[in-house]
Design a protein that fits this description.
The chain is 59% helix and 7% strand. With 88 residues, the protein is mostly helical.
Amino acid sequence: MVQPNVYYFEALTPVEVGRAPRDQVVTFIKDKPTVIFELLSELIEDYAESLTRIEHLVFSDAYRRVISILLYIAKHCREAKDKSVRYS
């Protein structure tokens, strides 16, 4: 028996959400394994990055914690113009 989704999500910006029937999703996964492989690869990479950040925040000195935060901000919160990084 499938359990209903009990989680609540709130977006910071306007979003459009769609829903697909389970059998169509399963068929898509079976027909396009490379898409799923790429998605899982990205999820694993993000998980590894999160784990590294948690380790730095828990076990490192202040210098490494600051570096970890700056690297995260540089990767996720930037506007790239040429090779420079500009924050707004």
